[in-house]
Amino acid sequence: AAPPATSLLGTKAAEAKSVLGPALGRGALPMLTAGRATQLQSAHGAPQLFTAMKRYPRCPSGDREKLQYIVQQGVKRTHDIVHHVMKLVVKLKGEGMEAVLAWLAAATRANEPKRDAKMTHHSGAFGDARVPSDNFLLGVAAVALRFTRPITDGRLIGQRLMDLVPLRHNWRHDWAAEDTLARGTTAARNAEPPAPSPHFVAETFYTAMRAFQVGLLPAVRRFEEVMQVLQQRAQATAGAAAGEGGEGGEGGGGAAGEANALANDNDYNAYYDCASAALLDPELAGDACRFSLLQAAWLVELARLPDEEEARAAFALVPENCVRSMAEWVCFILRMGKAELLLTSGGSGVGEAGSPASRPSSARPSTAGGNGGGGSGGGAGISVSVLVQCATELLSRPHLVRHPTVHAALVEMLQAMLIGEGSRRGGGSQLGVRGSSTHELLVSSVLGSAEARDSLCPALIRAYSMMDAVEGLDVDRDKFDKFHTRDVIARLLEELWRIPECVASVARLGAAGAGGEEAGGGLGGVVVSGGGGVFADFAGCVLGDLMYVLQDSLDRLASISELQRAKADSAAWSALSQRE
Q1: Pairing of strands 39-41, 31-33
Q2: Are 280 and 336 in contact (CB under 8 A)?
Q3: Which uninterrupted H or E stretch holds 51?
Q4: pLDDT tens, 276-304?
Q5: What is the pLDDT of residues 122-141, one digit of tens each?
Q6: What DSSP state is assigned to residue 366?
């Protein structure tokens, strides 16, 4: 299909020449410039707001948080005003609705990724003045997500949101450039506008989905890469100073010295304060969390369509980035220790009725209440347990979700939710998200569902056996490793093994496999491979991995032995250069 028609808003012109561009482009996110001396640049002086504070970055407790709050309130008012102006245009109906949707589509299209784009190590950390700024893209995403507030309680999933017409037509967003979940069965895209036009609710849902993918998530990825670059620079500077000064000044060497270097580095702390003020703004982050839950519930509804061919056709339209972006955002929120945003966006949702593991679940996606409004999170919404429902449902249906990188993203999300990982700030050695009271509440909320306890282990076992190497991936862009994902699955299974219902679900899966039947995970009787079934495939993969690790260990022992023999010859060893 042809890409969408060229818009009057070019790449950078979407921000520079649009009436709303200057307003949406105001924000706290600075840009890291490349060069010998990397530095932070901001058209609005956001880093200087923080570095001008007394004794920064070692300010009195709470001072930096207060300034972050002030920055967030300013950005919130700007986004609220732009959203209100657009709503006034929408109320004109007809051409007014079309004008708003067309503008949002053009603004997001300015940052749509190119399929042939190559990435190098940390290349995503540095800004590019030729494309819209992260602040502008965050502003567009914030406004687009505000338009979905009335539907984030999930009431319209089975009505307006099951209309996939906007995905079948390539006239607003370049869906045809995206790989779909059901690879190999990509549906044809029509480049002409549909007639009649889709409902405004469906249009805003897909517009927000696109803004989420190409606006919000790229800013999150850049934040994490910039933090790594600044961390390495601060530690290298501290290491050089320590080398010149013997023991190395204040803080000493080792882990304590590196932590002290980060605590004292102005750029590192200023960027963290600016970026966390922008990305963790309760309005933007709360809307993004509610939208993630809405997407998860929508995907569950599509996967559970009674007609298998209808479900396959639907997943041939849904882009893979829909799942990957949702999983990536949930992981980011939990890494930053903000589990409460997911909990307050929906509800605990514990105790839903689960269906037997021997057949696909026919239950509706979990909701935490009745007919609450979307608003800004005050009403009832979709339960946070729907994220696990979505992961188990999609991992259990490899004919609908075919690519291992999508499976890996879902596994990473489950790890972040059920096990947790260290905080990225300060080297990632802290306890991080798991250990906070809010995250423990999240875990209990998710595992309080009988359906989750019955379906998690079979889905993970199936994902383990289906996980395979993929050729032709960009290592820096795709960040996929089969053995890493299998290791994460193994740790998840170990964590779940303490729950009797999870053990029983694995026992049923093994018994069904021994009898030549299918059980667990909701695949609807589709056997992944012949013979012993899913459990036998899993056992074979585990044995294969064990043999691989054993061979690798033996090879490493041989390398160590060679080094020991080389070191035994003191004269030859002393003659080697430091690099050798």
Answers
A1: antiparallel
A2: yes
A3: helix 46-51
A4: 999 999 999 999 999 999 999 999 999 99
A5: 566 776 767 778 889 899 99
A6: P
- Closest by CA to 346, choosing from 290, 285, 287, is 290
Cis preceding-peptide flag for 198 (omega within 30 of 0): no
Q: Distance (Å, rounded) from C-alpha 2 to C-alpha 192?
A: 9
Write down the pLDDT at residue 117.
Answer: 53
Name the helix (H) or strand (E) containing 67. Answer: helix 63-90
Would you state the structure tokens that stand for residue 130, as one six-digit string?
Answer: 């030729």
CA distance 412 to 421: 10
Distance CA 558, CA 554 (A): 6
Distances (CA, A) of 258 to 11, 264, 453: 40, 10, 42
Task: State the greatest distance between any 2 C-alpha atoms of the chain, in Å, as a whole number.
Answer: 87
Q: According to the model, what pLDDT value does residue 558 have?
A: 87
Which comes out higher in pLDDT, residue 114 or 230?
230
Whether residue 287 contacts residue 146, with contact meaning beta carbons closer than 8 Å, is answered with yes
Report which of 341, 365, 334 is spatially closest to residue 352, judged by C-alpha positions.
365
Contact criterion met (CB below 8 Å) for 283 and 60: no
* 450-466 helix and 482-496 helix, angle to the nearest 10 degrees: 150
Phi, psi of 277 (to 5 degrees): -65, -35
Residues 464/388, Cβ–Cβ less than 8 Å: no
Rounded Cα distance between 63 and 489, Å, is 41
> At what angle are helices 134-146 and 266-279 packed, to 10 degrees?
20
Extract the tokens encoding 572.
């030859």
Alpha carbon distance, N-terminus to C-terminus of the chain: 54
For residue 505, give the amino acid letter: S
* DSSP output for 75-116: HHHHHHHHHHHHHHHHTT-THHHHHHHHHHHHHHHTTPPPTT
Q: What is the residue-wise DSSP string for 136-175?
A: HHHHHHHHHHHTTGGGTTSTTTTTGGG--HHHHB-SSS-G
Q: What is the DSSP string of 505-557?
A: HHHHHHHHHHTT---STT-TT--SSSTTHHHHHHHHHHHHHHHHHHHHHHHHH
**Token output for 195:** 């007639």
What distance in Å separates the CA atoms of residue 520 and residue 396, rounded to the nearest whole number?
8
Give residue-wise pLDDT tens across range 407-429: 999 999 999 999 876 444 444 33
375, pLDDT greater than 50: no
Query: Residues 570, 574, 580, CA angle at the centre, nearest 5°?
Result: 120
What does the block give as tokens for 507?
A: 């026992």
> What is the pLDDT at residue 531?
33
What secondary structure letter does DSSP report for 169?
A: B
Average pLDDT score over residue span 54-63:
86
Please give the structure tokens belonging to residue 427: 């080297």
d(CA 90, CA 30) in angstroms, rounded, equals: 32
Alpha-carbon distance of 143 to 25, in angstroms, equals 12
Residue 500 DSSP SS3: helix
